[in-house]
UniProtKB/TrEMBL annotation:
GO terms for molecular function: protein N-terminal-serine acetyltransferase activity; protein-N-terminal-alanine acetyltransferase activity. Pfam families: Acetyltransf_3. SUPFAM superfamilies: Acyl-CoA N-acyltransferases (Nat). InterPro entries: Acyl_CoA_acyltransferase, GNAT_dom, Ribosomal_N-acetyltransferase. It comes from the Bacteria. This is GNAT family N-acetyltransferase. The keyword Cytoplasm does not apply. Signal peptide: none annotated. GO terms for cellular component: cytoplasm. Keywords: Transferase. It comes from Micromonospora arida.
């Protein structure tokens, strides 16, 4: 596979690194975000490290069967970041693609442009498959992958090396020759405008800063009693749930949302939606409210908003909700939205000490939504 030394496409220039790039390489590689998610960078990153990369590291990537491109502004030729191919597997026609951008170049679509440009050039040169690996907490990089046409393929356990000599999971995003150029289709699209609201309650994506409130909500005895198994979460588990909320949304696993009061901006609870059968277009919903907000119709409003988004931009055909049979308050919420009781599945859910719990299932079709 023969790749050109200079590629211009999608508004960026990919070219070899030059000695005059060293200050901008330091700017990009010493940045805390780069240090957090590019674990093989020296720390602290100095001018000496940048010169080594330009003189030794980048040329070695080319001789090893990969590439190391500087991403530059076509108008000024100033370095914006880097993109490259490594870990070639010739028998599969496979390479791994990676990138970093300087802080001032982020948020402008340049990482996506560079990834698209190099991907298309690699496929034109004979590559069959490109992998892009991200840490589960690196939501911005996952958005780049999707925007560049890479599809989520799965989690690779302990595939990444950490700075502390430990291991961490990586998410694999893949684009093969013949795939459309992007963006890749998503099972769970973003909320329109980033929020759903009926002017009384609002739903927004769960964020890392929500961990303390989520622990307080989901460790309440009455909330624990209505989940399966009825075991309260740990602080660590709830912090991890909030840190990975964006990733769960982007991979199509689950959309987790906070319910807030529009007038005060105060959090009232949480809700979520996850696929139960992708091929059939079926997903399930769940929700919980803090005590001060119960009895005001907020759960009904939240579920109605969530269902409207599910049947609308998310393209889901059917929603289900499983409840324990004695959770009558939750049953009333679902029925007010238009859900209908469908079945009791005996002993379907895990309880405590080996016990099993019945699951009373409700379902909603688009025409049922009130």
């Amino acid at each position: 596979m023969k790749l050109r030394p200079v590629v211009e496409a999608h508004g960026v220039r990919l070219r070899p690194f030059r000695a005059q790039d060293s200050a901008n390489v330091v700017d990009g590689c010493a940045d805390p975000l780069s240090q957090r998610f590019v674990s093989n960078l020296p720390t602290p990153y100095t001018e000496t490290d940048a010169r080594w990369w330009i003189d030794v590291g980048a040329p070695a990537a080319w001789t090893g069967g990969g590439t190391a491109y500087a991403v530059a502004d076509p108008a000024t030729d100033r370095l914006l970041g880097a993109v490259g191919l490594n870990n070639p597997v010739p028998a599969r026609g496979q390479l791994e693609i990676g990138y970093w951008m300087r802080p001032a170049a982020r948020g402008r679509g340049l990482a996506t442009a560079a990834t698209r440009a190099l991907s298309e050039h690699a496929f034109a040169a004979g590559a069959a498959r490109l992998e892009l690996l991200t840490e589960p907490e690196n939501g911005p990089s996952q958005r780049v992958a999707l925007a560049a046409g890479f599809r989520y393929e799965g989690l690779r356990r302990s595939a990444g090396a950490s700075r502390d000599a430990g291991r961490h999971d990586l998410l694999a995003w893949v684009r093969v020759a013949g795939d459309p150029p992007g963006p890749a289709a998503r099972l769970l699209p973003d909320l329109p405008g980033g929020v759903l609201t009926d002017e009384v309650v609002a739903l927004r994506p769960l964020a890392p800063d929500d961990a303390a409130l989520m622990y307080r909500l989901h460790s309440r005895p009455e909330v624990v009693a209505n989940q399966a198994p009825p075991v309260p979460p740990t602080h660590e588990a709830m912090e991890r749930r909030c840190r990975l909320a964006q990733s769960g949304w982007l991979t199509g696993e689950i959309a987790r949302l906070m319910i807030t009061d529009v007038a005060s901006g105060e959090p009232a609870g949480s809700c979520g939606l996850s696929y139960t059968d992708v091929a059939a277009g079926e997903a399930s919903v769940g929700y919980a409210l803090l005590p001060d907000w119960r009895g005001r119709g907020y759960a009904t409003r939240a579920v109605r908003l969530l269902a409207g988004w599910a049947f609308g931009s998310a393209g889901i055909a059917r929603l289900s909700a499983g409840t324990v049979p004695d959770n009558t308050a939750s049953h009333r919420v679902l029925e007010r939205v238009g859900f209908r009781r469908e079945s009791v599945q005996r002993g379907r859910l895990p309880g405590l000490a080996g016990a099993r719990l019945d699951d009373l299932t409700f379902a909603l079709l688009p025409a049922d939504l009130r």
